Amino acid sequence: MTTRAGFIALIGEPNAGKSTLLNRMVGAKVSIVTHKVQTTRARIRGVAMEGDAQLVFVDTPGLFKPRRRLDRAMVAAAWGGAADADVVVLMVEAHRGITEGVERILEGLEEIGQGRTIALAINKIDKVPSEKLLALTSDLNARFPFAETFMISAEKGRGVDDLRKWLASKLPEGPWLYPEDQIADLPLRMIAAEMTREKLTLRLHQELPYQLTVETENWEERKDGSAKIDQVIYVMRDGHKGIVLGKRGETIKAVSQAARAELEEFLDRKIHLFLQVKVRPNWLEESERYSEMGLDFKDGNG
Q1: Which of 120, 121, 123, 176 is a plausible cystine mate for 146, CB 3.0–4.6 Å?
Q2: CA–CA distance, 210 with 62 (Å, rounded to integer)
Q3: Distance CA 139, CA 170 (A)
Q4: Is 299 helix (H, G, I), strand (E, B) or coil?
Q5: How far is CA 39 from CA 99, 148, 209, 213, 228, in A?
Q6: CA–CA distance, 158 with 146 (Å, rounded to integer)
Q7: Alpha-helix runs per DSSP H in the chain
Q8: Are 104 and 75 in contact (CB under 8 A)?
């Protein structure tokens, strides 16, 4: 049997549906999905099997105009992920079409596109009529020589199987890179931190999504098969701490319950989750925080 394996980078603007597509391909919730932009901070890899091929997805942060150090590190990680991949898939939202952000990404593709297979996936196709889709497809293909174009709905799963089969056929021949039962190469500590951060983001909406980070400080396996997980939520100001805790600790309690439930489902065992909030005014400038998120602190220099 000839096996294939390789890396596939999903790139696009924030909210283009990259994490939703990754989860749909992998069949498990590996990359966090929220309606907040820029939630995927690290290059989370999900592993999917298609016949004799192993598809390793590099889910890059959304590409946007960087303003702060964290932004710059995220954008560098996204382009780094694309440059390291065997196949790149550019995701564009059907109803938003060619935005200023998409134009910037197309320019970036010119630089990294040499000798690389790059496909186009137009997502959220249920939001526009077919004639508009055809016009968008021809416009995008006139701007860049995509190897193939796919019309998909990552959320509903339409077109996803075709895309996965095609991707599998484009990967180089070689041994699998991961054991078959492994779906993400991110340490579980980091996945657990991401799940808690997702719950905070959903709960706090506008208030301080990028002013906080979550780290798993301790993970203790217990004899009864359960695990005790201690996490710290770092915020930048005392006022933020109050927002995260909520009135009489209601917010943190709700976040903790939701994160624990999701962790138990993901790990298929009982979890004891303990959260505490600490104020670290300069966490955005501390290199260890970046390492925890799988980003390179030096990439943030601008």
Answers
A1: 120
A2: 14
A3: 24
A4: helix
A5: 20, 28, 9, 11, 25
A6: 20
A7: 18-26, 69-84, 100-112, 130-143, 160-170, 188-204, 238-245, 250-267, 287-292
A8: no
DSSP 8-state class, residue 158: B
- Total-model pTM: 0.65
Report how far residue 234's alpha carbon sits from residue 248's, in angstroms, rounded to the nearest whole number.
Answer: 19
Residue 31 has a CB neighbour count (10 Å cut-off) of 27
Helix axes 18-26, 160-170, angle to 10 degrees: 80
What sign has the CA pseudo-torsion 163, 164, 166, 172? positive
Residue 283 structure tokens: 């966490």
| Confidence band for 163, pLDDT divided at 50, 70 and 90 | very high
Give per-residue pLDDT as tens, 80-119: 766 678 899 999 999 999 998 888 888 888 877 677 899 9
pLDDT of residue 248: 93
The Cα–Cα gap between 243 and 200 comes to: 10
